[in-house]
Write a structure and sequence with these properties.
This protein has twelve helices and twelve strands. With 333 residues, it is α+β, with helices and mostly antiparallel strands. The strands form three sheets. A five-stranded antiparallel beta sheet has the order 4-5-8-6-7. Helix 5 runs antiparallel to helix 8. The model has no long low-confidence stretch (mean pLDDT 97).
């Protein structure tokens, strides 16, 4: 780890002032906010991240989960994953989010990791974390070692010739299915970004992963009121039962009327370069009978654009089965 300056922000204004000299919010940023530190500190030890200044934001008043007057939920950026997963309103109204959080990491990590940090979690691609190998995400223009290398766990949706790294978060998949909004404070004021627009495809700039701008801070996440009568489910498939990243996962929200699906939201994890919302699957579900044939057709539609690499073609069928099973579970919950 390289030497860095450390400061502790006691207010949002002070956090903004301390980050004012940041010139990028993406890879290579000189200023980084830290809360749980479950990703950032690892990457600093590996010298993937080498900020000149680290700003501790743990004292900011962003650690509450609050029900909103018109329905919906406001989740502070510093709410710990363990607390969010067990919050009564989340368990009751947004089960898919609770299940996704509990499927991620270990109990110790969930006690430290925060909502804001999880949104900004970096890929687990081994080449990104190894500074001795080319990686366009870590060092733009250096090449992608994964395309012709070890790519078993990497993406099959949303890839480019420059990057095939997956978004590793479970929480982000559930937030995508729930149509969350990300609230951001920065030098130019406050703004709100739908989660579906928050994450960027790699294209020819894989070092840019989100819409975050220099000096900006995530303050909270908002969830819309739960859809009337909807049931939800998160299913994660991985190499071992705990403390492992997804090979494929599915977050689904489903409502039925008179035996037909009236509302469907579908997101996939472990297979996309960003949490992967599937309007194709949602279209295949809406208005159809809630049954295995419909669910299989939706899964087929969701994976139709998959482009596997040399070692991960198995993910196409794995993701199909994952989504089919998640939909069947939600329909009978």
């Amino acid at each position: 780890m390289e030497p860095f300056a450390f400061a502790r922000a006691r207010s949002l204004d002070e956090a903004m002032a301390l980050a004012a000299r940041a010139t990028t919010a993406q890879q290579g940023a000189e200023v980084r906010f830290v809360a749980g530190g479950t990703t950032l500190i690892d990457l600093m030890k590996l010298q993937v991240e080498r900020p000149q200044q680290v700003v501790d934001i743990n004292r900011l008043p962003l650690d509450k989960v609050e029900s909103q007057p018109g329905g919906g939920l406001k989740i502070g950026a510093l709410v710990r994953n363990a607390d969010l997963a067990r919050h009564p309103a989340v368990v009751r109204d947004y089960a898919v989010l609770s299940q996704a959080l509990l499927a991620g990491a270990s109990g110790q990590l969930r006690n430290m990791a925060t909502t804001g940090g999880n949104l900004l979690q970096r890929t687990r691609c081994v080449y990104f974390r190894d500074v001795h190998t080319p990686c366009n995400k870590r060092e733009p223009g250096s090449g992608c070692s994964a395309i012709d290398g070890f790519n078993r766990s990497l993406a099959i949706l949303g890839t480019s010739e420059h990057c095939i790294a997956t978004n590793p978060s479970d929480m982000n998949v559930a937030l995508t299915a729930l149509e969350a909004s990300i609230h951001i404070l920065g030098p130019r004021g406050e703004r709100q970004v739908p989660v579906g627009e928050f994450f960027l495809l790699p294209g020819d700039t894989p070092q840019r992963e989100t819409v975050m701008q220099p000096g900006e801070l995530i303050t909270h996440v908002s969830l819309p009121p739960p859809h009337a009568g909807a049931r939800s489910h998160y299913l994660k498939l991985r190499d071992r039962a705990s403390y492992e990243f997804a090979l494929a996962s599915a977050a689904v929200v489903l409502a039925t009327e008179a035996g037909k699906i009236s509302h469907a939201r579908v997101a996939l994890g472990g297979v996309g370069t960003r949490p992967w919302r599937s309007p194709e699957a949602e279209q295949a579900l809406t208005g159809k009978p809630a049954g295995r044939e419909t669910f299989a057709a939706a899964a087929e539609a969701a994976l139709r654009q998959a482009r596997p690499q040399s070692q991960n073609a198995f993910k196409v069928e794995l993701a199909r089965r994952c989504l089919t099973h998640a939909l069947a579970t939600a329909a009978t919950a």
